[in-house]
Amino acid sequence: MTGLTKKTVQQNDKGFTLLEVLVSLVITGIIAAMVFQLYISQYRMAKGLMADADLSFAAVRAGQVLTAAVSTAESVAWAGKVLRINCLEDGKIITDSYYLADKDFNGVLDLYREHLGVPIPVVSRICEFHCTGVREGLWQISLTAAQAERAVYWQRTVRVRSSSE
Predict the structure, then answer these.
(1) DSSP of the chain, one letter per residue?
(2) Rounded distance, CA 97 to CA 25, Å?
(3) pTM recorded for the entire structure
(4) 15 found inside a domain
């Protein structure tokens, strides 16, 4: 009897059978496919969240710049698609213009501030920009940032400071 058990033990020491190796490869492949799909879905979700965050930042940054300009202006005028702001600098009235243009020719509209005749890019991906006079000294700024099928809308009402303050 002892000789029979030694022979069985010796046969088992030869390693795995082909069937066992194939089954383990199939199981490993299934697990790898599931992990890969999870990774791809997480990557797509992160990419979408990043695009949304970039658009939100563009809209908020443009809104901050426009709000600061309007709130510190002596006077504000909306002419067509251009916001003209008169500011007092060193005792002189200086007119700044804010408008959308594609001056770098990349197919994406940028918000520009033109100060003393020099266009300065403020932020990119702003596709719409409107200012409406709500009443005397009160302006509503609205803008839209868009890229592909995503869009972010931003709106704020701002009071112009008066010269008497």
Answers:
(1) -HHHHHHHHHHHTT---HHHHHHHHHHHHHHHHHHHHHHHHHHHHHHHHHHHHHHHHHHHHHHHHHHHHHHT-SEEEEETTEEEEEEEETTEEEEEEEEEE-TT-SS--EEEEEETTEEEEEEE-EEEEEEEEEETTEEEEEEEEEETTEEEEEEEEEEPPPTT-
(2) 67
(3) 0.72
(4) no
Domain that holds residue 85: 37-159
Can you tell me the distance from the alpha carbon of 145 to that of 122, in angstroms, rounded to the nearest whole number?
A: 13
- State pLDDT tens for residues 20-65: 899 999 999 999 999 999 999 999 999 989 988 999 899 999 999 9
Determine, yes or no, domain membership for 27: no
Domain tally, the chain: 1
11 within some domain? no
**165 lies in some domain:** no
